[in-house]
Amino acid sequence: MIKVENLSKTYAGFKAVDNVSFEARPGSVTGFLGPNGAGKSTTMRIIAGLTPASAGEATIGGLKYRDIPNPGTQFGVLLDASAQHAGRTGREILTISALTMDLPSSRIDEMLELVSLTPTESKRRVKNYSLGMRQRLGIANALLGDPKILMLDEPANGLDPAGIHWMRSLLREYANRGGTVLLSSHLLHEIEVIADEIIVIGQGRIVAQGTKAELLKTAGTFVKASDASALANALTSAGLEASPSGDGGLRTEAAPEVVGQAAAKAGVALVELRPAEGAGLEEMFLELTAETQRDTTTDEGVTV
Amino acid sequence: MSTATVEKIDTGKPGVPLGRLVKVELRKMFDTRSGFWLLMSIAIIATIATIACILFVPNDELKYDVFGQAVGFPMVLLLPVIAIMAVTSEWSQRTGLITFTLVPHRGQLILAKAIAAVLVGIAAMVIAFGIAAVGNLVGSALNGVDPVWDISAADYGYIILANVLGLLVGFMLGILFRNTPGAIVAYVAYSFLLPTIFGILAALQDWFKDLQPWVDFNFAQTPLFDGGPSGEEWAQLAVSSLPWLVLPMAFGVWRVLKSEVK
Q1: Is residue B3 part of a domain?
Q2: Domain span at B239
């Protein structure tokens, strides 16, 4: 279990991480979602003991990172797939890690096979690797010591769709076996499909956290008509509050049934009517990524 | 739920011992193309220097000492560069992200790097002197004279010590700068510019002349190439190493322990 309590990191007056608390529990995949520069990587580096925290602390199974004996065999970490020596071969990079952790060399072959790097590819220097291959190598490196806890920063970056699908099932299986997974992404969809628990971070602060179901359920209804203003009028006269939601549609807190009735009453033909699953999260996330960020976020989902 | 057993960290596991880290660091010094050729260049340059001695040095002056000096000179630059790269690559190639994650005890890791660098330095010196010895044998055989072995075992030790000190200076600068070109430039300034400045100062100011062996680390090392330091000269070596090696090294290590690895 990874536990982060009231963690803060300040750089010359700038708060990169601001009082962040969350847990990543065994048996589930915890998604750490936020736009670029939100503080995800800084938080992860603090967890791995690479960056000292300004306040608060991060523990792994109750221990500080530096107190974990032979940490690679208990807590697998991938922070940046590009941070590998360009002049070493993929196999050599795994060999160095395996020697450090005192693992048999057979483990290297197992891992290369797991991440589908062929023997020929593994003998090429990393500078000739694509980002996707580096990502696979990084995942192999994190899994090398057979750890029970995994932390991956943007592991899907550079992977092709098949690779992303592969990684998803790999992590799902890992969590199902009782492992703890914390992974970050700046893409909502990626986190949505893989994570059981979602933590949304923006400007160093956690803006929402909860299970995927919790975050998605309170989203209301998405409705769209070819005559958007007629639809808006219909909803207003029915006493429903609605707000524009991408693609010329509207989103409201009311149930689809109520919205449909209101539209029918006003004689507005609908193009789309559906529960707005995830729309709340999406809007919140869009708002976070928008250049003009506000301090307060929408009250959909579970705000903290 | 069975998950309770899974989340626990096994605190009874053995940690990563220093000996294993030294082994890994030694491997890391050889396993890149640049590292490999840097080490190879020691043997290659030593061989070239030895052949040049046989070809160009007058036959009656061809003694082991001449060969030793010829192969020793390139070491003054090569060994520190090896030490610098052993340190700085963790930052310039950003491998530190993995290294310091697998070994969170950074002090132990730096110690392992220092030991590995010193071992490589000593091995390189032994190999270079071996090549020089072959040169001495070949040279005297070509001249039809008996080879002259005018370097004693003690001399060897002193010369190796001097080169290890130079290597440690490189290591210190690597730790201090954590950037390969910066550390190499600093080393060149340190070992070529600084002695010149001190030399001029000593020539112009009488008061500094007496002080020089106590504050000029390079100067204090000269007895190591001259048959070994006396008691006072050992003391001078130790004292002058404080500002030029020990203290900056301590400061650099302290900063590495505190710094952020990105």
Answers
A1: no
A2: 16-257
Predicted pLDDT at A279: 61
Taking CA–CA distances from B91, the nearest residue in chain A reads A83
For residue A278, the model assigns a pLDDT of 61
- pLDDT reported for residue B213: 92
Cβ–Cβ gap A48/B1 under 8 Å: no
Residues 96 to 115 of A: which have CB under 8 A from any B CB?
Answer: 96-97, 99-102
How far apart, in whole angstroms, are the C-alpha atoms of residue B255 and residue A162? Answer: 44
Task: For residue B237, tell me if it sits in a domain.
Answer: yes
Cβ within 8 Å of residue B60, ≥6 positions away: none
Give the minimum alpha-carbon distance from B161 to chain A in angstroms, rounded to a whole number. Answer: 30
ipTM for the whole predicted complex goes beyond 0.85: yes
In this prediction the pTM is 0.86
Q: Which residues of chain B register pLDDT less than 50?
A: 1-6
Ordered DSSP codes for chain A: -EEEEEEEEEETTEEEEEEEEEEE-TTSEEEEE--TTSSHHHHHHHHTTSS--SEEEEEETTB-GGGSSSGGGTEEEES-TT-S-TTSBHHHHHHHHHHHHT--THHHHHHHHHTT--HHHHTSBGGG--HHHHHHHHHHHHHTT--SEEEEESTTTT--HHHHHHHHHHHHHHHHTT-EEEEEES-HHHHHHH-SEEEEEETTEEEEEEEHHHHHHTT-EEEEESSHHHHHHHHHHTT--EEEETTTEEEESS-HHHHHHHHHHHTPPEEEEEE-TTHHHHHHHHHHHSSS--SS--S-S-B-
Q: Would you say residue B6 lies in a domain?
A: no
Q: Give the separation between CA B104 and CA A50, rounded to whole angstroms.
A: 8
Which residue of chain B has the CA closest to A51? B260
Residues 76-105 of B with CB under 8 A from A: 89, 93-98, 100-105
Shortest Cα distance from B255 to chain A (angstroms)? Answer: 12
- Give yes or no for residue A251 having a pLDDT over 90: no
Alpha-carbon distance B71 to nearest alpha carbon in chain A (angstroms): 29
Q: Please report the pLDDT score of residue A213 as a whole number.
A: 79
The predicted-structure confidence for A151-165, as pLDDT tens digits, reads as follows 999 999 999 999 999
pLDDT tens digits, A176-231:
999 999 999 998 888 888 999 999 998 899 988 999 878 776 667 888 888 888 88
Mutate one of B98, B105, B108, B259 to test the A interface: name it (highest A CB count within 10 A).
B98
Count structural domains, chain B.
1
User: Is the Cβ pair A66, B13 closer than 8 Å?
Assistant: no
Contacts of B26 in chain A (CB under 8 A): none
Assigned domain for B163 exists: yes
